[in-house]
Amino acid sequence: MIVPREIRPVNASEEWLSHVPQLVDDLCDEWHLSVDDEQVRGGAWGIVIACHTEDGHEAVLKLCANHERLRAEANALMAWERGPAIRVFDYRPGALLLERARPGSPQRLAPSQLGMLLNALHRSARASLTGLGDWRASINAGISQVPSLHGLGRELLRRGEGRPVAALHGDLQPANVLRHRGASVVIDPLGIVGPREFDVAMAGLYNNWGEDSSSRITRLAKLTGTDATLALAFGQFSAMYAALARRT
Ligand SMILES: Nc1ncnc2c1ncn2[C@@H]1O[C@H](COP(=O)(O)OP(=O)(O)O)[C@@H](O)[C@H]1O
Ligand SMILES: [Mg+2]
């Protein structure tokens, strides 16, 4: 009853899906949760279920078929525990229990607000950035999927090497920035460590406030004190990947 067929995550297997009802029962026992009578959401890799904790807190349970991805997501949110990120209540491989954002509406931030959010995220992470992915692995994965990006990717790897790194979100689109108690908090990070320009580029590409994408990235680079040329190169790589990967 938990997982109607329509919400099947795009990348999850039938086999994973068939274990979800049992997994939800086990987690409700282990974490003392009661599932709310609300529609379950399905995304790329997992599902999100509204629930309550034993002491009455509103929460969401995120189950993910890709354990590595969810581990990096959980670690990034925990690294930002003092920053503008949703609170993690609990985690185990394949399952993440989060505080529920209220009202939880997606945020279309103005450039200056987005710049402040990026600054706050990048500054708030704990000194140790363990359990997160590596930006170089993301670039290499892009190159192996779209070989025509080889030259651009190699150039990015060379130019990004040695730049100061931070815990990056990697997917700062409006749906992943929620209104919570009068502030904006992030959910759903990719959880990678890399140069800040990577996040500046993603945020510029995914938040369209009316300028062209290069102007958006350049403006965000200025607001965050990052290198606009490197951010534009990340943006170019990512935009080309998005266009070309669909055809491969
Ligand atoms: N902590 C939360 N509080 C409120 N809503 C949430 C929370 N986490 C997820 N959601 C809702 O579920 C949707 C999908 O969750 P998300 O973690 O972004 O999964 P996906 O990886 O599928 O994009 C979000 O866009 C949001 O509407
Ligand atoms: Mg999301």
Description:
It is a single chain. With 248 residues, the protein is an alpha+beta fold. It has 2 domains: 5-101, Phosphorylase Kinase, domain 1; 105-245, Alpha-Beta Complex (Aminoglycoside 3'-phosphotransferase, Chain: A, domain 2), CATH 3.90.1200. Helix content is 44%, strand content 21%. The chain contains 8 helices and 12 strands. The protein has helices at residues 14-31, 67-79, 111-124, 135-145, 150-160, 196-206, 213-224, 228-245, and strands spanning 33-35, 41-42, 46-53, 58-64, 88-92, 95-99, 103-106, 133-134, 165-168, 177-180, 183-186, 192-195. The strands form 3 sheets. Strands 1, 2, 3, 4, 5 and 6 form a 6-stranded antiparallel sheet that branches. Helix 3 (111-124) packs antiparallel against helix 6 (196-206), helix 5 runs antiparallel to helix 8 and helix 6 packs across helix 7 (213-224). The radius of gyration is 18 Å and the shape is globular. The protein binds adenosine-5'-diphosphate (ADP) and magnesium ion (MG). Adenosine-5'-diphosphate binds next to strand 3 and strand 4.
What is the compact description of this entry?
The protein has helices at 14-31, 67-79, 111-124, 135-145, 150-160, 196-206, 213-224, 228-245; strands at 33-35, 41-42, 46-53, 58-64, 88-92, 95-99, 103-106, 133-134, 165-168, 177-180, 183-186, 192-195. With 248 residues, it is α+β, with helices and mostly antiparallel strands.
List keywords for this structure.
Aminoglycoside 3'-phosphotransferase, Chain: A, domain 2, binds adenosine-5'-diphosphate, three-stranded antiparallel sheet, 248 residues, binds magnesium ion, globular, single chain, six-stranded antiparallel sheet
